[in-house]
Amino acid sequence: MQREKKSNVLLCCSLIYTLTVIRCSEGISVSTHHNLHKRVGSDVTLYCGFWSSEYVSDLTTLSWRFRPDNSREIISIFHYGNGVPYIEKWGQFRSRVEWVGDISKHDGSIVIRNLDYIDNGTFTCDVKNPPDVVGTSSDVHLTVYDRIPPVGAGVVSGAIIGTFLGIVLLVVGGLYLFRYIVRRRARSETIFFKGASAAERGKASGKPGTVSKGPVLYATLDQSKSGKAASEKKAKLSESKRDKK
Predict the structure, then answer these.
(1) Rg (CA), the chain
(2) Residue range 51-73: average pLDDT?
(3) How far does Cα 201 stand from its chain's mean position?
(4) Helix or strand or coil: residue 25?
(5) β-bridge mates for residue 64, sequence order
(6) Is the pLDDT assigned to residue 213 strictly greater than 50?
(7) Secondary structure (DSSP) of 154-177
(8) CATH 2.60.40.10 fits 25-150, yes or no
(9) pLDDT higher for 160 or 212?
(10) Closest alpha carbon to 137 in 22, 48, 26, 44
């Protein structure tokens, strides 16, 4: 009986341990935007959403931190705890941070107003919801520009590829247009030569010996007729002379 009780106790402990490990492995999930680009003097909303298997209560805490570009310094700018938002009253973000989130809706967003170049850097949102405290924070990088937003490598490569494809399409289209014009011209010339007369065909082609032989034949016949008449006249004259003698 005692052995059975010990085995049952060990089984219950193992089950509790297993459930605890599984529950802790789920952890809390935090999500933010990856990159934001804003102009100088504008406002930016830093979104922070989270998911937890535990009920959200006054024990839930949320914090925002900032690390400037090219620096290892980490600045605390906002904290939420015991159901109350707390904005840091010192540093570069004093009087510029506004709480717009709602913990009951798993939203820990804040707004930073009147951005400046010194606000370039990485913002980190971290949430704890006891007993769900296992999880990782989430980062969002902010780039503050003056007039023209920075162009990423993906945009540049996309522009290069688009330009190359446009040139290829223009070249292919030009070749097809040239072939169409050549074929249309050849077809029109073929129709013209088929419908033209022999004299027009020879004149258009410019080849010698293609002139009509009609006038030459008539001239030859006229010359033969005149020669025959002259010979007959000579014969009559000779006969008349013989008669006189």
Answers:
(1) 52
(2) 93
(3) 57
(4) helix
(5) 78, 125
(6) no
(7) HHHHHHHHHHHHHHHHHHHHHHHH
(8) yes
(9) 160
(10) 48
